[in-house]
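Technical note accompanying the year-one report. For the benefit of new consortium partners, we illustrate the data format agreed upon in the data management plan: each record pairs a sequence with a structure-token string. No post-processing was applied to the example shown here.
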Amino acid sequence: MLQEFLASGTLNIVYAAAVFISFIFAVIILLGAELGDAIGLGGEADTGTDFISVSPFALAMFGASFGITGLITRLWLAMNAIPSVAISAGAGFVVGIVAQLFFIYVLSPSKSSHYSLQQDALHRQVEVITTIPANGLGEIAFDNVSGRVKLGARSATGKQIRRGTLVRIERITGRVAIVTPVEEEHA
């Protein structure tokens, strides 16, 4: 059965489907990101884990490279199925890894990360957008070159800080800022 599959044109259909699905996936990701930014849905989910996730564009690049290479090796170079699949998978992995590295080292540094938050946010005056309870967690927000940054916030003084109050970021631990009201600094 596997030999029949590999010998027939079905493998070419699989390659073409990989290209088509990867293209549609990339368009949906692009439109979804643009639409989300336009209507303000560009929030980040903080799962508490610090592992590198695979970029959706790297996945799309893998699928497209796999499919295109497969079609070229089968239709133009008239390769047998096994070498075609091996070369296509190798090309897909190489292009996918290059796309992921591009995502990590070129695109990601422009986004706020734990490291850049230390440099960018420390000692900045920001606004409380969710009241910070005396011993609880509220939220602050500010704009930087990457866009709107929202962080959890705790009061350095142990007192409640109301929504709309200007505070100064004293330190950052993970995605939580320790803040002091600006008016208390001058008192």
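Partners are asked to follow this layout when depositing records. DSSP finds six helices and five strands in the chain.
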